[in-house]
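Quick one: structure tokens for this chain, please?
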Amino acid sequence: MMIEIVNGFVLLALAAGHAELWVAAINRVHAFRLSSAFLHWTRRLHDVALPCFPLVLLWRVGLMEGGVLRGGRWSQLPVGWQIVIAACAVGFVGLLVSVTRWQLRRRHSEPADSSERIDVAGELGGRPIGPGPYQVLARLPLNETFELEIAQKTLRLPRLPDALEGLRVLHLSDVHFLGTIDRPYFDFVFDRLARIQVDVIAFTGDLFDNLACRDWLTTTFARLEAPYGKLFILGNHDWYLDSPAIRRDMTALGWTDVGGISRTLEIRGEPILVAGSEYPWLGNRPQLPGRDEPQAPPLRLLLGHSPDDLPWARRHSVDLMLSGHNHGGQCILPVIGPVYSPSRFGVRYAGGTFVDPPTVLHVSRGLSGRHPLRWNCLPEVTVLTLRR
């Protein structure tokens, strides 16, 4: 009897390993420039495989004649099943590694200097749910998608010029105007943001999921001002739509497009190299001058929609990289941490601040998402104060 109990726990571990393999595959597939139709079908396969495989595993490996829950041995299983079991075992090891990394990072990460949590639905008198898709998710209890965290964080940059000490950057990302989260939510949020005094504003992509919402810009992004500029790039969801039209709309509102290019801005009399990367979805990565080239600005700021560009940023001596795309995972499970993060690094850079010299990376959890479901992962806007 004891051996059957042990084998039962092994089957549970194998089912968890299978799920880890699927999640890892889905995360990495979404990191590349693939059509929305292809990604849709991979998600459907994932949705079927996750609940069905454990049942097949239990029946075929555990309960059938010769199964490991009926006195059979693992070595007596067909070769095909032994290969599947070996793959699931690898997946389970990967799950343990991911959970361990999350726990270590959670325990050693520095909290925000301060933060304000706002119940937007409570302020508005109810959840502002519009006619868009996925309304069932928006109505789920304990869903935090209609809340907001405005966080204050200090970032230390060794090459920050003295003139830029204390520079304040408002970082927002991933608003995903779609229609399910209705316009009053965003109007409320941007009204609060318009009251914050900052020097620079940076938006790191994924503006629209539905171009019928283009007029929402007039009561949201048009309201924000900063004395030294409002910078933006686009993201993969903008690539699915009409990205040239979105660029025109944003530039008409006074925002500076840095997607795929680099330019020098002067802030407090100090030149800063500002660049943007929408790679791999739109254009190429920007061309950056070498550090030793004459007149090269001492500070480099990169807006990169995906944090997958971090290795490239480090090779090009970027001081500060701002990203979004991963939404913090949207749902953070107890012990396990975030599960879904569309990155070739999986959930490693789902959200937060990462120091990987010479680059400091800040990944915003984003303001919204196509799927309006969040748990233990509030929508986020961050005010970053730069210090030496």
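The chain has two domains: 2-108, 114-387.
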